[in-house]
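INTERNAL AUDIT FORM
Audit reference: QA-55
Scope: verify that the stored structure record matches its stored sequence.
Auditor: D.O.
Record contents follow.
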Amino acid sequence: MTRPCHTPPDRRPPRLSVIPAPIPTIDADIDLFLASVGFGFNPGEMRRAMRPDALRLSAKSDAELARLGIRRDEIPAYVLRHRLPAHAPVLVR
């Protein structure tokens, strides 16, 4: 006879009472930007390379981004401005 697999109540992992934060949408924004640019490069590799800078900028407030001269929807283009200069946002200072 086999015994049913049962974890005693005192050994169960605690339930999360806090709702986890949503996954940043910057990944979707990057994918959309790269798809709009076209093909001819490895978008996965490019996204991995630019993700840290994009996340850092995404964490800034809209006012902080405005001081840099960009809008939130321009973050992917701004981060890739050196690799894809034709798609870089025009910085207003």
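Auditor finding: record pair retrieved intact. The chain has a mean pLDDT of 76.
Action required: none
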